[in-house]
Specification:
This protein is mostly helical. It is about 70% helix and about 0% strand.
Length: about 230
């Protein structure tokens, strides 16, 4: 997962004042943590230090984040929500790959951190690469994402319990996303600018998801697409 304090959604006008304050506190804690981790390294900063710098108690930090790693990888819930909503709301006859492709292209075009294309992202990724704890949390997050997508596929296709197609669909879809992200990440870490990498990034999304769509249709046939209303 990717996070960048410079790229945040505007407050949701549908939230109550209390909910908005909670959202703002959570974002402030995460932003402070991100700056500290980037400056000193993830493993050299304590949660207590993050709390002090953010002007809150350690208990408040843990009220918003279940573990230290989630202070940095704070977009995991957003990724779960975006991917599962895309899969659940896909058009009749589409596999799970089609809406995920559209979402990926939209995020990349907006330079959203989950789109894996931005000039500020390499510094963030280096902190992850330098921390075994963060790398382990990323692997867990991938498993969480696969499980959430599998459930969305199963529910929208009416798959029977034990049917392997939803799990295989989710694993292949998330792997396709990860592969494109990792490929572009390597280019940006090597010093390439995001604008220069963008055409190749979009092209790789296209070719990867073309192959994925063909594989999913061969794998699941009609069962891989949502049921008609």
């Amino acid at each position: 997962m990717i996070s960048d304090p410079a790229s945040r959604p505007a407050p949701d006008d549908g939230l109550s004042l209390r909910e908005r304050k909670k959202q703002q506190t959570r974002q402030r804690i995460s932003d402070v943590a991100t700056r500290l981790f980037a400056a000193r390294g993830f493993d050299k900063v304590t949660v207590a230090e993050v709390a002090e710098a953010a002007g809150v108690s350690t208990m408040t930090v843990f009220n918003h984040f279940a573990r230290k790693e989630d202070l940095y990888l704070d977009r995991i819930p957003e990724a779960l929500a975006l991917f599962t909503r895309a899969v659940r709301e896909r058009r009749p006859g589409e596999t799970a790959a089609a809406p995920v492709r559209r979402l990926f292209l939209e995020l990349a075009g907006a330079r959203h951190p989950l789109g894996a294309l931005g000039d500020t992202f390499p510094a963030f990724w280096r902190v992850i690469l330098d921390s075994p704890a963060l790398r382990a949390r990323v692997r867990e997050a991938v498993e969480e994402l696969e499980a959430a997508v599998a459930q969305a596929v199963a529910e929208t296709t009416g798959a029977r319990p034990g049917d392997p197609v939803p799990r295989l669909t989710a694993a292949l879809t998330v792997t396709a996303y990860r592969t494109v992200c990792a490929t572009t990440m390597a280019r940006l870490l090597a010093g390439e600018r995001a604008d220069d990498a963008a055409p190749g990034h979009r092209a790789l999304i296209g070719t990867t998801f073309d192959a994925l769509e063909a594989a999913l249709r061969a794998l699941g046939g009609p069962a891989s697409a949502p049921r008609s209303p």
